[in-house]
Structure formats: structure tokens, C-alpha cells
Amino acid sequence: MKFLPRSLFGRNALLIVLLIVLGQLGGALLLREMVLKPRLDQIAESVARNVGAIRSGLQALPPAQRPAFVEGFNRQALAGRADRPRRIDDGLHPLLTPLERSFVRSVSARIASLGVEAVWRREEDGGLALRLTLDGSEHWIVMPGVLPVREFTGALVAVSIGSALLALAGALWFQRRLNRPLVRVVQAAQTLAGGREPLPLPEDGPTEVATVSRSFNQLVSSLRQTERERALMLAGISHDLRTPLTKLRLGVEILRERMEPELVSSMTRSVEEMDAIVGQFLDFARSEGDEKPVATSLDDMARSLAAACADHGRPVALRLGGVPALALRPQAMRRAIGNLIENAWRHGRPPVTLSTRVDGKEVIVEVIDRGDGIDPREADELRQAFRRGQADRSGVAGAGLGLAIVQRVAQAHGGWLELETPPGAGLHARLRLPMQIVPGGT
Q1: pTM of the predicted model, to two decimals?
Q2: What is the domain extent for residue 118?
Q3: Where are the alpha helices (DSSP H) in 286-434?
Q4: Residue 159 lies in a domain
């Protein structure tokens, strides 16, 4: 089974080829058994009667006239041939095809009943000659048209091969048309797995294929509706939480003079953490498709983010690679890079470095910290919503949405998020984006 093709198209194509080959072989065998052999049996019977008649005629002639009779008979048999045939080999078996050998045996058996020992030879022109021995003299009688039918003529072979090729081409064409909708389903599934919504599949073709396409479209529609409902729920909850959080912050400020400084600081930090979590909910619920791509300089965005972080006492080192202006959703991209910086400060250790560069046909935005990094086995899990690393579950508060938001923004731009922890180098979080340069952008 390991030698079979893995794809459905390959297996069906192999099955079609085998069926056509077996059909051709079966047709050839049927032609041999039902047409060629009966015809050769009829010819063998006719040849045996002719041999008997020639032998009787020779016996009726005086011995002196027999050579002239044989000469005249052979001349008549060879009429239209330029040269007198020459014997090539007295051994017929190496020169006969299986069907000819069967014919010769059939004729020999029939004339044996007449008391004639059959000795055959192949002539130079491909015909056969039979030896008749009378009164101690040998006479070679040329058999005209003994084998008018060959096993496989050129026309038969050409027609067989041509029909097989036509059948194979038609079958493969049909199989390719049947396989094309399945390929579209696979591509759409890969697009959906990459976090992007595929275009609706055509619901035409055979009933089974149309059913698969229709079911996939219904699945995409259901997932889209579920995502909308989840985003609406998160947005509603987050919006409702903002009011009590604002009241808590106001109450802390009013009671600041009446409470101990440590308690005020603790309550203020708790309110800020809750507000940050609510902000992540809102960011995750926000649809990236509502924002249109515009010409954006990643280097300018990096400088602006670094300045904002410095204002909050979180300096970020910059390494800018002169990236050209790209077609980006600026607010979404700013949130994504901001989340990477926030993640580096929250879960890593300074210094934090933000770099941009061009790598072939991609643009890379990278944030590096000097923390302990992550377990490489957790990288895929951390890119999903509401997932946190093992090291963070009992430490810093968070909703587990920061990297999920970054991943969603990257996918919306046709890119992806890489998480890597080189030995002793902290976490390297890279946004890989396709090079979509805006004409005239700076």
C-alpha cells in the first residue's frame, strides 16, 4: 500500500489506467479467441484439403513430369513477386509467432491423416513452404496466402493504443474536473485555519460535491455568526464595566487623604489592571476589517510608540531599518506593536528593544526583552485567545488576549506572529508582514 499515490486524484488516475490496460488486454484476448483462432482453423482446413489435392495430383503424374508441375504451381503461387524466394531456415519454431505455430500444428495434424509427414520452412518473403515426399523425391510446395491474418497488425495496434489514450485523456479530464472542487475546499479550509475568512465556494457540480461546498459555506457562516456574537458580548461586558471602574477610580481619589498611602496605591494598581483587561476585551472585540489600509510608515509608528512608552517610565530602545511605507491599518498595527511592548514589560525584563527591517519580500517588526522567555511548546497556544503561559498563571494579572490580538492583526495583513526564545536572550516576538509597498510612499 505504501507504493500507492497519497492523493485522491493520483489513486483514481492509477485505477483508471489499470482498468483501461486490463480492458485492452481483455479485448485483445477476446479477439484472439473469438476471431483469429476460428479463422485460422478454417484456413488450416482449406490448406489441408489443398495439400491433399496437390499430393493426389502429383501421384497421378509420371515421376518425370512432377518437377515441372511443382515448378508451375510455385510460379503461379509467387505471381507478382520480383524474386524467387530463398530458404532462410529449415527450423520453423524460432521464426513463428505463437499463433502461427498453432496454425502449423493444426495443418500438420490434418494432413497427417492423409499419410503426409509435414515439414515446413519459412521463405524469405515471409511465406511458408511444405515438403512433399513422393517415391523418394522431395518437392517443396509454396503455400500462397497461408497466413493472411497476423496476430496484431499495425492498424490494430494503432487503434488499440489510440483508443486507450483517448479513454485515458477523457477519464483524467473528468477526474480533474471532479477533483477541482475538492482542491477549492482544501484551500478554503487552509484560509479559514489561518484566521482569514475564505470566499464562498461555488455550489455547483455533482450533487455530492455541491453538498460538500454548501456544508462548508454553512460552517463558515456559522463561525462568522459565532465570532460576531462573542465580539458583541465582550464589547458589551467591557463597556458596562467601564462605568463602575470609573466610579472606583473616582472614589479612590476622593478618599486618598483619609486612607493610608499603601492601600491607596494598591487599590489604584488594581483599578488600572482591571481597566487594562477591559481595554484588551474591547481591542479583541473590535473588527479589524472596519479600518481601511493606508500608506503607513512603520519607522514613524515605532518612534511614536517609543515616545509614549518613555512618558510612562518604560523606555524602549529603537533599531529602525528604513522600512518603506506600507499599506497598513494604522490603528490596528499600533495596537499590535503596543501589545508586544506591553507584553515585554509585563512578562519580561528590560531593556526592551523595538526593531524594524526588510527581510527579502517581508517586513519584520521585532520586540525583544531580557526575561526568561517561554517554553517553545507553548508558542502556538499563546497565540490563541484567553491562553496564558505556565509562568504567568500565578503571577501578573491578565486576560490572555494580548498576543491573540497581535496574531489577529498580523493575519488581517497577510502575515503572522513568531515567538522565539534563543538561549539566554529572552523572548523575541516578530511580526512578519508581506512587502506591500505603497507607490510614492515614504
Answers
A1: 0.48
A2: 8-151
A3: 298-311, 330-347, 379-382, 402-412
A4: no
